[in-house]
Amino acid sequence: MAKSLVVVESPAKARTLGRFLGNRYRVEASFGHVRDLPESAREVPEAIRKKPWGRLGVDTEGEFTPYYVIPSDKRRHVQSLKAALREASEVLLATDPDREGESISWHLLQVLKPKVPVRRIVFHEITEEAVREALQSPQQVDENLVRAQESRRILDRLYGYTLSPVLWKKVQTGLSAGRVQSVAVRLLVEAEERRRAFRSAAYWDLEATLASAGRTFVATLVRIGNDRVAAGKDFDLGGALKSNRLRHLDETRARALVEALLGSLPWRVSAVEEKPATERPQPPFTTSTLTQEASRKLGFSTERTMQIAQRLFQGVEIGGGELEGIITYHRTDSTTLGEKALTEAARVIRGMFGEQYYGGPRRYQTRVKNAQEAHEAIRPTDFRLTPQRLSGVLEPDEARLYELVWKRTMASQMVDARVLRTTIEITGTGPGGEPAVLTSSGKVYEFAGFRQAYVEGSDDPIGELEEQETVLPPCMVGDLVGPAGASASITLVSLDPKRHETTPPPRYTEASLIKELERAGIGRPSTYAPTIATILKRGYVFRQGKALVPSFTAFAVTTLLRDHFGDFVDVSFTAEMEEDLDEISNGERDWLDFVRAFYRGKPRERRGLEPTVAEVEQKVTYPVIEVGVDPASRQKVVVRVGRYGPFLQLGKGGPGRTASLPEDFPPADLTIEKALALVKARAAGPRLLGVDPKTGSNVYVANGRFGAYVQLGETPESGSGAPKPRRASLNGGLTEATVTLEPALRLLELPRQLGAHPESGLPVVAGLGRFGPYVKHGDEFRSLEPEDDVHTVTLERALALLAAPKRGRRQRRAARTALAELGSHPESGAPIQVLSGRYGPYVTDGKTNASIPKGADPSSITIDQALALLSARAAGKQAARRSGAESKTQGTGGRRRRSSAG
Asked: What is the spatial distance between Cα 536 and Cα 531, in angstroms, rounded to a whole number?
């Protein structure tokens, strides 16, 4: 008996639908796209291979006809679908409910050419009810959505295949340009340029510790006379004050002010302001906000978030069966919730939290232009499936992301939180009789409201600290502030001058980059993850913690594109193209006119890509990044990108006037002093450490493309065919300046073979890797424990580690190599240790970590030096908190408490 053939994109989705639909339907997967433009020369169809535009796969001489091919890895899937079609009574195209899904359905029609009836069905959640409803209201493939997606694909092909060859000729082979990718890289580079331009400025203020009614609180100096005291936000990138109407305190003035204020006691409470306010919940998640929040709260990359969300949408396996998809479609820019979802959310809120937490349905207006309002926001498909009910069912990462979605959706429908903000102003007398005003701000939640379920995260730690609640003691205008023992209602515990330094502008994180792309109208929900994955893969960006740092290659590419093809990496222009594509999807614009104008240009309106490249290609010069001028020779020092990566060049270069740069060297951290030191070290050549007593070969330390390393033996002449000498990268706090012969020889012994595995006979090896010391057998790795030494670990110990199950990241996080035990902290009594971490040695008291300066020997750190490092680190964190709080909550700031649910 013939069955209805249902085609979806993934096998997981096919299994879930197959369970819903029963024996009357056959569900097959297309495994994503079945056709695309040719990716390589061998995929180009014979009919167009000799055409000037053949490699593009798009007829740029005619009407921009795309020539699609079935990639080799898709042919067997297409054959399976054709075989299934021969026994089908009808075809139901059930690909994802977005432009890309619509395009896949259209391509399936073109490839399969079915002779039976074809219907398009759309559902935004994979539940039995949603699928049944979709079957009752079939549609046709939306040609406008298809044309919009096809235009995007043609546009991206023309952009990449036209501009990338310019980069190959002028910068480095293998580079690529992309319509969204290149703009994203430009944003990252311009953020790094702001950091390069940054010059630190010092400023001082006063901090008073006060006590009253059993509470201790802090007040900070904000005003002297009529002038506001300068804070971090008042300085520009160059370290200069933005306004002359500010009081900039240095150390001398700050200490003089302390003396004057102490001499003017008692002070008076000059103002008390209590201001009730409300806080509203955030809308339900869109793709953008979900990836941002998962990055902030869970530390997930955008790609990881989308992969997990895909699994939650398609259905999660449980033992021998499957669960329905437990969230709605995860690629959406809509904040809308359907009426059914609003009703279910209301019932669950009343049942779990109480009537007082629900005040009626909340509907949110989507701010993204041309958002697909037919979609819903990302929400649970069944609000009764609480995170607790799915405990033990979902994988840990799935459970954490689902919890985020469930709580955010619940909170979006709950009532506002009611908060009382309090500001106390205290006035004393400074030098010359000027009044000096200190303020303290408090924040108390009178009713938690939506915060009972969820608290949104922050892009920075300061924002997280602001979630804390601060309760100020009761006081009135006229209350006195005096020293201990005085008849004053508020006691002055201490008054200290505090030094601060301005901090450089922040780099983008994945979360903040996506937020900026969405704000500017660049890209769509389906493009964020692949864009970030591409710029990381291409070496335009590397991660430093959560920050995305652009490489020197990114600088070179952005400089070239910005200088010669500025329109095509302009944020506004790229956003305008997104609007054009939206108009095509709505049937308001002709796709061919749009593509033609982009590539060939439009008289008196815009330059086309093709004539622009033809006009300026010969004028394009090799982009260099200027570092500064050598004060001795007055010659420029620049960074160039060569075949083997970035390198420094002094003047015109030549022997002794260049030096390699590590691929992960942050451009904003490269000063002229550092650059000249690297060139000088390269000119001096490798430094001889001594002779290896076993081989009689010299041991050197040198600096190369991937950083400092030690080498056993001489470097052979180029082309001699002689084997390369043994090398090992420095680690564990060792630097080019401090390494000696003994640790160098120990590093050169690695990786060391411990013996053969008793079962496989394969060697067991101990070595040092990116994440620290390890043992390895075949493809199995295990990290060494803190008590293990990679240089002395035995075969027996390695076999025991390999036999144990792999530990997760949380378990490994505590495994830091202890380099020294220095004693106890004089105040807290906590043990102070020198540890070896992923980014080098540091000192810790269990609460504060402080990096050991480069060049310092970790083994020689004393307890006094450790205490000084910890104190400086703690002061820096406190300064950052105040500076951040000041910039965000100036005048009425406050701190909010994070709920346990958040």
From this structure: 9
DSSP assignment letter at 69: B
In the residue annotation, 599 being an active-site residue is answered as: no
Reference 269, options 445, 473, 434; nearest CA is: 473
Cβ contacts of 185 within 8 Å, gap of 6 or more? 535, 540, 541, 550, 554, 557, 558
DSSP 235: B
CB-based burial label for 597 (10 Å; 0-12, 13-18, 19+): middle
What's the CA gap between 651 and 646, in Å, rounded?
16
Let me know how long the chain is.
902
> Cβ-count burial of 267 within 10 angstroms (0-12 exposed, 13-18 middle, 19+ buried)?
buried
Q: Which CATH class is domain 151-198+506-619?
A: mainly alpha
Q: What is the mean pLDDT of the chain?
A: 87
Q: Out of 67, 159, 203, 329, pick the active-site residue.
A: 329
pLDDT band, very low/low/confident/very high, at 882 (cuts 50, 70, 90): very low
Tracing tokens 């079935």 back to the chain, one arrives at 70
- CATH level 2 (architecture), domain 3-35+70-141: 3-Layer(aba) Sandwich (3.40)
At 317, list the tokens: 């396996």
* pLDDT average, residue stretch 365-394: 79
pLDDT band at 127 (very low <50, low <70, confident <90, very high): confident
C-alpha distance across the termini of the chain, in Å: 54
What pLDDT band is residue 71 in, cutting at 50, 70 and 90? very high
Q: What is the pLDDT of residue 323?
A: 65
Higher model confidence: residue 645 or residue 373?
645
Q: Which CA distances in Å does 6 have to 3, 84, 263? A: 9, 10, 85
Contacts by 230-235, CB closer than 8 A, 24 or more apart: 230/203, 231/203, 231/205, 231/500, 231/883, 231/886, 231/887, 232/203, 232/500, 232/502, 232/503, 232/883, 232/886, 232/887, 233/883, 233/886, 233/887, 233/890, 235/201, 235/203, 235/502
Say what percent of the chain tops pLDDT 70: 91
R_g (Cα) of the chain, nearest Å? 32
Q: Write b or e for each residue in 539-550: b if 16 or more Cβ atoms lie within 10 A of its Cβ, otherwise e.
A: bbbbeeebbbbb
State the Cα–Cα distance between residues 313 and 702, nearest whole angstrom: 52
DSSP helix/strand/coil, 687? strand
Nearest to 532 by CA among 513, 549, 555: 513
The 3-state secondary structure of 281-304, one letter per residue: CCCCECHHHHHHHHHHHHCCCHHH
Query: 403-414: per-residue pLDDT in tens?
Result: 999 999 999 999
- Please state the domain extents for the chain: 3-35+70-141, 151-198+506-619, 287-415, 625-676, 687-748
Phi, psi of 776 (to 5 degrees): -140, 140
Residues 688-699 have pLDDT tens digits of 999 999 899 999
Which token pair is 662?
Answer: 């590590």
The model's pTM: 0.78
Greatest CA separation found in the chain?
A: 100
Q: What is the pLDDT of residues 425-482, one digit of tens each?
A: 999 999 989 999 999 999 988 898 998 888 765 444 344 434 557 889 999 999 999 9
Calpha distance 729→706 (Å, rounded):
8
Element (H, E) at 338: none
631 DSSP assignment? T
User: In the prediction, which pLDDT does 424 show?
Assistant: 97
Question: Rounded mean pLDDT of 68-97?
Answer: 93
Tell which CATH classification among 3.60.20.10, 1.10.290.10, 3.30.310.50, 1.10.3120.10 matches the domain 287-415.
1.10.290.10
**Predicted pLDDT of residue 14:** 87
Q: Which residue has the tokens 């030191």?
A: 677
